[in-house]
Amino acid sequence: SERTLVLVKPDGVERGLVGEVIGRIERKGLKLVALELREVGEELAKQHYAEHDGKPFFGSLLEFITSGKVLAAVVEGPRAISAFRQLAGGTDPVDKAAPGSIRGDFGLEVQFNLVHGSDSPESAEREIKLWFPEV
Ligand code: GTP
Ligand code: MG
């Protein structure tokens, strides 16, 4: 079994899609290990998205992710990292995410793509420590 960090980003929380996302995670058979609605400060945002530091969209990404409450969750199950990335769909909600995925069903713009999921075991370990040091 494997763990991954999932976020419902400020656009998803603002649009009332928390239940939709949690429902899809549960129906897939993945388990919730930790769950918290929280404000994201500049420092946490920078550390979370450190791999994108220096890219042209880094500033607007930080502004976006700190713009409202985020639902953070640790999700567990067999191949949880890939399983959630599949539920989420590709990064661009129109060009990459298939209909039937969270981003494909509810998103339109690459920045406002509703959810985050860790992209590798190394990322998952780093991100879970960052968001839920006690878990
Ligand atoms: P995350 O799960 O949020 O990490 O998304 P991802 O792994 O599918 O994509 P990636 O890590 O490459 O990018 C992180 C986030 O930056 C994306 O989810 C988008 O919100 C945003 N982003 C990525 N590429 C672009 C871009 O070209 N323009 C803008 N404005 N935002 C982008
Ligand atoms: Mg990513």
UniProtKB/TrEMBL annotation:
The family database entries (Pfam families) matched by this protein are listed as: NDK
Spell out the InterPro entries in the cross-references: NDK-like_dom, NDK-like_dom_sf, Nucleoside_diP_kinase, Nucleoside_diP_kinase_AS
Cofactor (UniProt) = Mg(2+)
Q: What is its main location?
A: cytoplasm
The residues responsible for catalysis, as annotated, are: H116
Q: Which family does it belong to?
A: Belongs to the NDK family.
Quaternary arrangement and interactors, per the entry? Homotetramer.
The protein's name in its UniProt record: Nucleoside diphosphate kinase
Lineage, opening ranks: Bacteria, Bacillati, Actinomycetota, Actinomycetes, Pseudonocardiales
